[in-house]
Amino acid sequence: MTRYAEFYRQSIDQRDNFWATQARLIDWQTPPQQVCDYSNPPFANWFVGGTTNLCHNAVDRHLADRPDQAALVAISTETDTERSYSYRELHTEVQRMAASLLALGVKKGDRVQIYMPMVAEAAFAMLACARIGAVHSVVFGGFASGSLASRIDDAEPVVIVSADAGSRGGKAVAYKPLLDEAIRLASHKPKAVLLVDRGLVPLQLEAGRDHLWSELRAQHMDAEVACEWVASSHISYTLYTSGTTGKPKGVQRDTGGYTVALAASMKHIFQARPGQTFFTTSDIGWVVGHSYIIYGPLVAGMTTIMYEGLPTRPDAGIWWSIVEKYKVTHMFSAPTAVRVLKKQDPSWLKKYDISSLKALWLAGEPLDEPTAQWISDALQIPIIDNYWQTETGWPILTLANGIEQQTTRFGSPGKAMYGYNVKLIDEATGEELTEPNQKGVVAIEGPLPPGCMQTIWRDDERFVSTYWNTIPGRQIYSTFDWGIRDADGYYFILGRTDDVINVAGHRLGTREIEESISSHPNIAEVAVVGVADSVKGQVAMAFAVPRDATGLEHDDARRKLEGEVMKQVDGQLGAVARPSRVFFVTALPKTRSGKMLRRALQAVAEGRDPGDLSAMEDPSALQQVRTLVGA
Ligand code: AMP
């Protein structure tokens, strides 16, 4: 048996011993008495009896050995700023933020929503919440009022931390008006809003509710706020993700299991050592940002780089100039970003000294072979794909090169990671597929390892019914992805089994977009599907039936309505969810019983054969689509 195969076996067969060893990678105030309580499946309770603190492990624990080492470097090519914070300085700033949140009435277990651009204060806010045992819930800054409002109502935050604006491509994007509108729309009202004024757009404060960070910080310059030791199972955060229904799910994570899982992943997967530099190009609004911009690198005593800006501005060499300047050792990005760079002049990749870089990890969406090959040739370092989900918090499939160097196979994210009892399951029978190269649903036998979601926030029942009861005859976690495994244990991911689409690594529920489009007064019905795109992986495409089609035979009128629909989505959900096109049709492809034939619609929109259409009610519906997309 290879070293990794042995390591993996132990993690499954001697689960408790295995994770007891990993638990020693972090500091505990009280060590756990029991490794895993799985007496109430599928709910797993990791490190029972242990008390710890995520902020302590990410910040305070490093003060003795590396107080003056940079902990966080916040670089913005949008505002042309670079701010570096040593562990000592980060400790100070986090305490100021923690004291400010306490002053605004936040208590242990209270939720704090964070709706922020990629600025250092966003990291302070997350760490401050962890410090005082508050539950943070970060909402991606690209989401608009409607999305934010539904998350406010679900999380019921006591305080919302936000900013005047973000910035994209050199243009300020005001956040505060979106936040004000979201609070107006939401039934739950936060007690206070804490605002970072970046001076990008004029900021209007609501008296009694809104507070400026600059003022609160000044009041708490010398604040000392001790870490609140919390039970391992104490909720560290919730993070919303899309599913098949319009209502986003609050993925809820614990503290102890998550801290251990991250510490272990930094060692075994990323081969990270204290003092090295980790640069993840994601956003704190996504799970990659939580795990590998903020917590993972800091727990490992590294320097982490937060980047606000595009990969191509001021030029396509910007990332590599950061690698050179900060001697980045580990880089983590998404395939879409690489595909964007691939369209630029390749000489940008040769302009800087990137010899510090050990490997590039990519995640969030399928990494196609040509893209992997291109970046591998250009950088001459290992390119490591990793497959995971918001729900799991750390990779399910990749290569654990910290245990044993393994060969990358382009097109495959790699092997099952330790702790994940990954199976391929026949969707119809629930049987496990054990032969190589059989296609099945990628599923995970419980308990999910430490770091994975505990439940859906305030909805245990939905957690069970959504994830654990979809495969006939067995209680097993479904990833909702199709996959195959080759004879050597390498997996290949073949797309989602549900209506979730992945646009530039951003996971979107088509149902949410449909609901937003349907609320336009002239839209009777709509179907949104994900269509293959050479840069973004997929884009959302909408096919809508107008209530009143008068005049829509004219290009101008169609374009006007399409623009209105797009604006509606921008305003409610945010530009990330905006469909690339809205086509108007007289009917949508459905079965005689009224079920939407999404896969057929998607196939036709991609110019593929839609397969068996015998159940279809009105064959002309697909013909219209074919004509419209020019397939
Ligand atoms: P999210 O929760 O937003 O990270 O989205 C998770 C989903 O993205 C997975 O269920 C997959 O459908 C897809 N995904 C993430 N990483 C990969 C990868 N490396 N290869 C293929 N698909 C991926």
Automatic annotation (TrEMBL):
Single Gene Ontology MF annotation: propionate-CoA ligase activity
Keyword Nucleotide-binding: yes
Domain of life: Bacteria
Record-annotated Acetyl-coenzyme A synthetase N-terminal domain positions: 4-58
Keywords tagged on the record: ATP-binding, Ligase, Nucleotide-binding
Residues in AMP-binding enzyme C-terminal domain copies: 512-595
Protein name as annotated: Propionate--CoA ligase
Source species: Simplicispira suum
